[in-house]
Amino acid sequence: MRPRSTTVGEIFGWNALRVTTTLVYIFMFAPIIVVVLLAFNSSRSGAFPMEGFSLQWFGKLFSNQSIVDAFKTSLILACTSSLLATALGVMAAIALIRYSFRGKAIINNLLSLPLLMPEVVLGVALLLFLKFLQQPRSFLVLMIGHTVLSLPYVVLVVQARLVGLRQHYEEAALSLGANRLQTFKEVTLPLISPAVVGGFLFAATLSFDNITATLFWKKPGIETVPTKIFAMLRTSISPEINALGAVMIVITIALPLIGGYVVRRISRGR
Amino acid sequence: MGRNDGRSQGVWGVLVKAEHRPYLLLSPALLSLALFLIAPILFIFAYSFWLRADNGQDIPAFQFGNWASVLSDSFYWLALRETFITSAVTTLICILFGYPTAYFLARCKFNNKALLLFLLFLPFWISYIIRTFAWINVLGKNGFVNSVLMSLGLIDEPLKLLYNDFSVVMGLVYFQLPYMIINIYVSLDGIDRNLESAARTLGCTPWQTFREVTLPLSIPGLGAGSLLCFVLAAGSFVTPRLLGGTDTLFYSQLIYDAVIGQLDWPTGSVLSMILLASLAIVVAVYNRFMSLSDIYRSFAK
Predict the structure, then answer these.
(1) ipTM value for the complex
(2) Taking a contact as any Cβ pair under 8 Å apart, which residues of chain A between 202 and 261 contact chain B?
(3) Residue A32 within a domain
(4) How many angstroms separate the CA atoms of A243 and A30, rounded?
(5) What is the value of pTM for the model shown?
């Protein structure tokens, strides 16, 4: 092979790629930085120019009972629905990867169905269906709804992990006399625990984040953090919203980092 | 795993026949989907034929009045067109910026490429509504862009950047771009580099190599990213509601207004079915040429 000569065009092309990539990264991060910046702005308008450094909006935030309540609702909702979604999802993923049975392809597609469906439609459908069954909108509805919405993601994440896992370990445990439940508990679960934790965190984030369907399902008067922000934005953007945004940004950036750390610890500990 | 069945004496092994196990494992997930997803959607399909009553107690019926009035109303057609055009523009912009970025990420020789990919998905973890309202801070009258341009003396009046189709597209691109990039990246990363070297050795220019080898091989990722981008954009509700203006027409908003605003559930059901059907057509056309499994795979990344 002859040595590759680097032409002027090639250098130009590569630099163009570099510039585009840099622009994309600036585009991805600039709005987030602006929110954090404005959260510390002492100006009452919640907009530029920056008038001075202030922490008052954070203080206002934590003394606002409705926001604290929304946080509680969101956290409980995220935890319960993602636990459910993880339990259902792990079972389904194991069935799909470890067994061969009739109708597998169809079931696989069925489980991924909610991924491509507009959330508004899912929201309307469940709302009207429950109204028809004369079930009032409640926390339970939100919990079930969020579980269904995040289920496909958990299935995909756990499936991806299981595919890469050879069955030998499980077969060894079985031939050494462990029964199936023991095998699952002692062998399979530890091996897929990173994916389980990952799926759980993913589901929790999706639930904590969900707004469109939640707007349809929530009981009037109950707010999650996103619907609370949505309602606050009706009037206008205030410095408080920016402070809330900054707090959420810090939490949501910390969460995957902690999650990644935990997963690494678990997989190293075994 | 079947050959050990005689020896495993756990409850699971005794009570459940091997051929029933997968179905048993799947049943909670499938049951919840059937009850809370499929049944509701079938229900609103039926509801779209009900007769609307003024007292809110819609009457179960089978008549095409709701469908006829929606399908004959040019306003709804216009909204569908606008929704699809905006989504298509969003997808195109995502391709335009996403492809070069994915290419750079796949081909650059940084040691910490994982960090770059991680950074790209960091905003993804941040709340959707925060990422959306962030654009009000950036594009608003006293927003970042306007205050920078004003203080530089480039403009005297703040530009009207917010609450129009432009800001809606910005918000949608912001949301979809990482999906697009990761899909293309996965595709590009899987290409055997020897093919590119071979093309070069055989006398192709870098551009020819890209056009004849790299680009065709990355089509699955590009297609998956584009479909995802289009479908998610066309179904979006919060972004157009927060960043759009009074003349922004988005189909999801019409559904919300019909169901929550006017409590006109038969019309809301018809609109939901139309949105669902038109997106299903897009997905079906896509599936005709490419595999849907590529899309699902990208979610697992």
Answers:
(1) 0.85
(2) 205, 208-209, 211-212, 215-216, 225-226, 229-230, 233, 237, 241-242, 245, 248-249, 252-253, 255-256
(3) no
(4) 16
(5) 0.86
